[in-house]
Amino acid sequence: MLDGSGLNGSGLNGAGLNGADTLPAGHAVDDLAGIPALSLVSLSSASLALASAPATGPGLPAGADQAFAHAHLDPVTLSILAAFAVAPGQMRPNPLSAANFGPEMYHEAWLETRPSPGGDAEWRCLSEALYFEARGEPVAGLFAVAEVILNRVDSDAFPDTVCRVVKQGTGKRFACQFTYTCDGLREDINDIAAWIRVGKVARAMLDGAPRNLTGGATYYHTNYVAPYWSRVFERTASIGDHYFYRNPA
Questions:
Q1: For residues 178 and 50, what is the distance between their CA atoms, to the nearest angstrom?
Q2: What is the pLDDT of residues 50-87, one digit of tens each?
Q3: If you ran DSSP here, which 8-state letter would residue 182 be given?
Q4: Cβ(175)–Cβ(163) under 8 Å?
Q5: CB-based contact 12:62 (threshold 8 Å)
Q6: What is the DSSP letter of 73?
Q7: Percent of the residues in the chain that have a pLDDT greater than 70, as a whole number
Q8: Per-residue pLDDT, 73
Q9: Which residue of 66, 92, 153, 173 is 20 to 30 Å from 54, comparing CA positions?
Q10: What angle do CA 127, 46, 37 make, to 5 degrees?
Q11: Residues whose CB is less than 8 angstroms from the CB of residue 75 and which lie 6 or more positions away in sequence, other chains included
Q12: What DSSP designation does 152 have?
């Protein structure tokens, strides 16, 4: 993401390549949910970095969230998203209530027990953000990033849906909140295993999993940069490769 006031002194504000995102080329994955087998390519995406000032412009028109959210994705990636889609009103049943989510949810073993995920536009937008911005993070790191996005949804200072939060500022110079939405690079979902993994986290969070990792954070950046706002905001957590913050006001 680019800082709303322009380029941070260190370049992209909090952005960088996630070293865990690179996979060996030519390794195939099996067919899944009707998706043709894909060859894994070297993957790289800019890590999430959030601007210090919330955008104040209008949100998306009603009903436009889904189309706008995925407008930058290529046809193959869109077909993968569609394979996991669930029509509105036909959400897959959640086998766990919010009360059943415990500390074990932050471990790979718990995530592996979860059913194949799916959902509507909100689930797809959250899954997409986790995939492109944090898929190399540990499970707790994925949940922490999801917390920030959902905390923004609940805040009066940010848009009121996941899709609008993720796409906030897209198309405006130095205003996008998530780098992958405006870095000019093609965004391909080539790692199906990673997509399922982040989708499970997104599903759990939208199903009511607690937000107890980041202390109400609405900002974060990678731990190898120091955006100017990190000296002003209150740091609430350090998880994986990210530091998390909330506005002291």
A1: 7
A2: 333 333 333 333 333 444 445 455 554 555 555 555 44
A3: T
A4: no
A5: no
A6: B
A7: 59
A8: 57
A9: 66
A10: 55
A11: none
A12: H
Strand duo 234-239 + 242-246: pairing: antiparallel
CA distance 242 to 106: 16
Residue 141 DSSP label:
H
CB atoms within 10 A of CB 245: 25
Query: CA 93 to CA 196: how far, in whole Å?
Result: 17
Q: Return the biggest CA–CA distance within the chain.
A: 50
How confident is the model over 127-153, as pLDDT tens digits? Answer: 999 999 999 999 999 999 999 999 999
CB-based contacts of 22, cutoff 8 Å, min separation 6: 42, 43, 44
Q: Output the pLDDT for position 84.
A: 53
Question: d(Cα 117, Cα 86) in Å, to the nearest integer?
Answer: 10
196: number of Cβ within 10 Å: 17
Could you tell me the two tokens for 141? 């790191």
Contact at 8 Å (CB) between 181 and 171?
A: no
Indicate the length of the chain as a whole number. 249
CA distance 5 to 7: 7
Report how far residue 187's alpha carbon sits from residue 45's, in angstroms, rounded to the nearest whole number.
Answer: 8
Span 223-248, mean pLDDT?
94
The Cα 203–Cα 101 span in angstroms is 12
- Show the tokens assigned to 41: 């390519």
Structure tokens at 94: 């959640």
